[in-house]
Write a structure and sequence with these properties.
The chain is of the alpha/beta class and 489 residues long. It is built from 17 helices and 20 strands. Strands 3-7-6-4-8 form a 5-stranded mixed beta barrel, surrounded by 4 helices. Strands 18-17-19-9-20 form a 5-stranded parallel beta sheet, with helices on both faces. Strands 11-10-12-13 form a 4-stranded parallel beta sheet. The termini are far apart. This is 4-hydroxy-3-methylbut-2-enyl diphosphate reductase. Its cofactor is [4Fe-4S] cluster.
Length: 489
């Protein structure tokens, strides 16, 4: 499959031509576009050129990447649009994602408003006739005429130059898209995505909103995922950093990562109605710290000091908990009474790395008390083992999860320790097209705080680059559930 870049105008061809894919001048308007499409060989193609904006937010020089192309023969979906849009944004360009509609003539202002009411963002006279149905296909239009600034306008020249500059800057992304086109195998690691603690935390916020109405306040992110947070914000959740930002007497939800006793006291002092969404497995670690320190032991907390879960756990006994972040720290840490020590772990660590740290501590402190059961969350362990089972069978691993998700970052590290490059992506728009070039087998998983639909969307985006076969490797079935707090029942 050799991708072709189709440019209606020669000046557009000059703007995008470079060392990348072959460019073809297809001609202006539907008749010439249809004739060119009949001559072109079957296979992947990108339409790149200037176009008209339909909505006020689409300005001259902006790019519109088509999620679908609407024309007289119907609608052609463009599943790879988020991938291409991400590559263009990475070049510093302003990009809008949405439908592009085909027109047989230059659109006037009244018609522009009518097309915008259908949800379309841009209009052109070629893409619908050049659309390669059933083949990898993409459309990038640099906006020249816009709402209030039609083609016959004093600003036409400057707007046209802005559009051509954006097209020229877009050329590397077009090349990356072309080089990423190929058939693929996607191997899904299972279990992946939401765990029982995350599902519980999200349901708690949803139920609190149903019971109390908006706004319901949440201290910090309920779970570390931007998509989850945005969806709950749309429903009326208000996320705050500290208790002091919550109006007195309001409803406050503690996030799944847990809080210190000092935070609980602050909430009580403000008369807040508190709903605790702390994951029960995090609560277990808090209980261990209280038990160990209650009998006079210093606790080594294996984890990352900046993580919210660790902050809350340390708060149980600030003078008696020492955070140990890596093997080097474990080899040098000192305490006042080496004979009276214990250890616990942050629940979202990589199991092998945490065990290596614990092993050093056990060697240095023979009397070290240990948790009755592993502190690392079952879901974290399962996802790491599931990924490890497939990592060596693929060329690249994509881990769906937000950048502040500890368990998602650990999955990247697991893959890299297995010798397979990995990338953490918040969603399909974050997948770097350059990584996909030459990657015929892709492993796909998601952190415990990432919604399942993001995995589905990533697979569909990859399908826009060529045929994709999907196989699922299930290591174990998860049946864990946690009860909800009485405050939301």
């Amino acid at each position: 499959m050799t991708p072709i870049v189709c440019t209606p105008l020669r000046i557009e061809q000059a703007a995008v031509r470079g060392p990348g894919p072959r460019t073809v001048h297809t001609g202006l308007g539907p008749r010439r576009a249809a004739a060119a499409a009949a001559r072109l060989p079957s296979g992947p193609r990108i339409v790149a050129g200037v176009g008209g904006g339909l909505t006020p937010e689409v300005r001259p020089g902006d790019l519109v990447v088509a999620t679908e192309v609407r024309g007289p023969s119907g609608v052609v979906p463009v599943p790879s649009a988020p991938l291409l849009a991400g590559a263009l944004r990475g070049l510093g360009l302003t990009v809008h994602l949405g439908p592009v509609v085909g027109s047989s003539h230059v659109v006037r202002e009244r018609e522009r408003a009518s097309l915008a009411s259908s949800g379309a963002l841009a209009v052109d006279m070629e893409s619908a006739w050049l659309a390669a149905s059933g083949e990898p296909f993409a459309v990038v239009r640099a906006i020249v005429d816009t709402v209030g600034e039609p083609l016959l306008h004093p600003s036409t020249v400057s707007n046209g130059l802005a559009g051509l500059r954006s097209l020229r800057r877009a050329a590397p992304a077009l090349t990356a898209w072309a080089e990423a086109v190929r058939p693929r195998m996607v191997l899904l690691a299972s279990p992946r995505s939401f765990c029982a603690g995350v599902e519980r935390a999200i349901e708690i916020v949803e139920r609190a909103l149903e019971k109390h109405g908006a706004p319901v306040y949440v201290r910090r992110q309920i779970v570390h995922n931007t998509h989850v947070v945005h969806r709950l914000q749309e429903r009326g959740a208000v996320f705050v950093d500290e208790v002091e930002e919550v109006p007195e007497g309001a409803t406050l939800v503690f996030a799944a990562h847990g809080v210190s006793p000092a935070v609980r006291r602050a909430a009580a002092d403000r008369g807040l109605s508190v709903v605790d969404a702390t994951c029960p497995l995090v609560t277990k670690v808090h209980n261990e710290v209280r038990r160990y320190t209650g009998r006079g032991e210093t606790v080594f907390l294996i984890g990352h000091a900046e993580h919210e879960e660790v902050e809350g756990t340390v708060g149980e006994a600030p003078d008696d908990v020492v955070v140990v972040g890596d093997v080097a720290a474990a080899r040098t840490v000192t305490v006042r009474d080496p004979a009276r020590t214990a250890y616990t772990m942050q629940t979202t660590l990589a199991l092998d790395e945490a065990e290596e740290i614990a092993s050093v501590l056990r060697e240095r402190f023979p009397g070290l008390s240990a948790p009755r059961k592993d502190d690392i969350c079952y879901a974290t362990t399962n996802r790491q083992q599931a990924l490890r089972a497939i990592a060596r069978e693929v060329d690249l691993v994509l881990v769906v999860g937000s950048g502040n998700s500890s368990n998602s970052r650990r999955l990247v590290e697991v893959s890299e320790r297995e010798g397979t490059p990995a990338a953490l992506v918040d969603g399909c728009a974050d997948v770097d097209l350059r990584l996909l070039a030459g990657a015929g087998r892709i492993g796909l998983t998601a952190g415990a705080s990432a919604p399942p639909h993001l995995v589905t969307e990533t697979v569909e985006a990859l399908r826009g680059l060529g045929p994709v076969s999907v196989a699922e490797n299930t290591l174990t079935e998860e049946e864990m559930t946690f009860t909800l707090p009485r405050e939301v029942l």
